[in-house]
Amino acid sequence: MARHAKETPRFSESALFKKTWKIVLIVIVVSSLLLNVFTYVVPVVKYYGDSMSPLLADGQILLVNRMGDVQCGDVIAFYYNNKVIVRRVVAVGNDQVNIDVFGTVSVNGSVLDEPYITNKTLGQCNLTFPYSVPANAYFVLGDNRETAMDSRLEEIGTVTEDRLLGKVVFSLNPFGKI
Question: Residues 96-126: pLDDT tens digits?
Fold first, then answer.
């Protein structure tokens, strides 16, 4: 009896089932890990509006770091009326904020250098200045001060830890760092 030169290895149904089960298990574990990371550590949010123009555009997809340390100048995402809002932190707890009639922002007596805004204006405002930021809170402003609804309105107010989603760190479209 001559052996065939080209014998193909045959897998038993049991071996094929085991390989398929391992692949399915790996896919489930990896998917679960990614879902947890993008839910609890680095959530993905979609930005709407023009309040952060020209930095952000309507429909932009952003990654938010929940673990990041928030400082003045950072762009953060927070909750307001079951919506996610994105604004820039200009002052933190115990800071004194003043905005004059021309839209010039001062924090603790020093005028902020704000190269990211194109038009200074007081905008929508019903606060009395100077304003003392409560401890453990953030005073936020939109970069497009004419249209932005932010901490200048008592309805939105300062952002406390319980409303903070995190620090915006990356844009997925267009791809790049914030």
Answer: 999 999 999 999 999 999 999 988 898 899 9
CA 149 to chain centre: 17
Say if CB 78 and CB 62 are below 8 A apart. no
Q: DSSP for 73-107?
A: T-EEEEEETTEEEEEEEEEETT-EEEE-TT--EEE
Mark 48-73 as b/e (b = at least 16 C-beta within 10 Å). ebbbbbebbeeebebbbbeeeebeee
For 108, the token pair is 């603790």
The first and second tokens of residue 122, run together, are: 């007081």
Amino acid at 98: N
C-alpha dihedral (64, 67, 72, 73), degrees to nearest 10: -30
* Cβ-Cβ contacts under 8 Å for 2 (sequence gap 6 or more): none
